[in-house]
Amino acid sequence: MWDALWTDIDIATCATADGYGRIDDGAIAVKDGQIAWIGPRSALPGPEEGLAAVRYSGERNWVTPALIDCHTHLVYGGQRAGEFEKRLAGASYAEISRAGGGIRATVAATRAASEADLLRSALRRLAPLVAEGVTVIEIKSGYGLDLDTELKMLRVARAIEREAPVEVITTFLGAHAVPPEFDGDADDYIDFVCDEVLPGAVEQGLVDQVDAFCETIAFSPEQVARVFEAARLFNLPVKLHAEQLSDYGGAELAAEAGALSADHLEYLSPVGVRAMARAGTVAVLLPGAFFTLNETRRPPVDRLREAGVPIALATDSNPGSSPVTSLLTAMNMGCVLFGLTPQEALAGVTRNAARALGIGDRRGTLEVGKAADFVIWDIEEPAELAYRIGFNPCVDVIRAGVPTLVA
Ligand code: NIG
Ligand code: FE
């Protein structure tokens, strides 16, 4: 006997590499928080009345896997609307960063913020994502850049998992920018990150994976390689902000380190694409940052496709380059700005987002044995998810087999 059974649904399982993995007039059975059975309703093994303790009708709506936002900087203090105004008046993101604004401005605000305030503001930004069916979110540190504040950010990220209906994957991003107290000493700062901050955060159980920002305004491939080596000593998976503003060889470095993902990638070279394909490194595209910074150089989507590199999409939610708190909007931007198909956009926030977080074995597709996290959408076809802007057709989010919005 199953715990629950859903019928009267059309399903996009996202379980196949191409296509939605469509099941018309399907059924999903749940047991102990996992999918116990999925298929066409007509193939259910017996009369429906006797199959499950509770039965739900999906009322002819669509079901997809719950969404996964695999790249965010959701926890931070303050906001940077003033920089938005400066960019509108002609300043570039890199210029503002070199003049001491950008990430450093948020570092000052995050250091000054209390843990309670950081939690409160992050939960407010999380709410619209949860309402869109996000049940897993990755959250990075990187606005502390000292031991205390990096730990504070990561504790807040962990607290979010207790306060909201999401699984949080924490990412240590100590190598996000050089803080003012290390001005001109990026190498010393990397020593500090590797020898003190990362070990301190790991000791407190706050780190699931490690990231860095490889860019001319941030850290060189050599410096990133040292961060990756420190991560390896703790057996932590790595990923990288790479090729966002220039071709710096970051994606190749990440692929060679066996990174789960390389993220941004507007300037990714053909060599980088091949290295990622060989390593199985996921390309995480962040159209919110591309849009916000009014960039013109698009990531090489055709090459990534041809090479078979899995493509994920995320909000990159952060106060500077991507003040975005809608994954559905990121899907729309992925299609309109980067030329993804709506089917690729959906795979990018489910199946491939799970891979980018190393949790593809238990999440991201609707298959027997995986988490019973799925969303019920009031739509006529799955492409609608990427098509609208500013409209949320989510009618219910099922988490570990339990309806959370409409009981
Ligand atoms: O992913 N690229 C580096 N980090 C963030 C932006 C951080 C910020 O501007 O505050 C990003 O775009
Ligand atoms: Fe980012």
**Order of the strands making up the biggest sheet:** 3-2-1-4-13-14-15
What is the distance, rounded to the nearest whole angstrom, between the alpha carbons of the first and last residues? 21 Å
What is the correct CATH architecture of the largest domain? Alpha-Beta Barrel
Number of domains: 2
Shape: globular
Structural category is alpha/beta
The helix content is: 25-40%
H-E order: EEEEEHHHHEHEHEHEHEHEHHEHHHEHEE
Q: What's the rounded overall pLDDT mean?
A: 97
- In total, the number of strands is 15
Q: What is the CATH class name of the largest domain?
A: Alpha Beta
Low-confidence stretches: none
Rg from alpha-carbon coordinates: 21 Å
Largest sheet: 7 strands, mixed
CATH evolutionary superfamily of the largest domain = Metal-dependent hydrolases
Give the strand content: 15-25%
What does this structure look like?
This protein is of the alpha/beta class. It has two domains: 2-65 and 365-403, Urease, subunit C, domain 1; 67-356, Metal-dependent hydrolases (TIM Barrel, Alpha-Beta Barrel). Helices cover 36% and strands 23% of the residues. It has 15 helices and 15 strands. It has helices at residues 81-88, 93-98, 103-112, 115-131, 147-163, 186-203, 221-233, 250-256, 270-279, 287-292, 301-307, 327-338, 342-348, 351-356, 384-387, and strands at 2-12, 22-31, 34-40, 52-65, 67-69, 134-140, 167-175, 209-212, 239-242, 261-264, 282-285, 311-313, 374-377, 394-399, 402-403. The strands form three sheets. The chain has a seven-stranded mixed beta sheet with strand order 3-2-1-4-13-14-15, with no helix packed on it. Strand 14 and strand 15 (402-403) form a beta hairpin. Helix 6 (186-203) runs parallel beside helix 7 and helix 12 packs across helix 13. The longest helix is centred in the middle third of the chain and has 18 residues, at 186-203. The mean pLDDT is 97. N-(iminomethyl)-L-glutamic acid binds at residues 73, 102-103, 106, 213, 241, 244, 289, 316, 318-322.
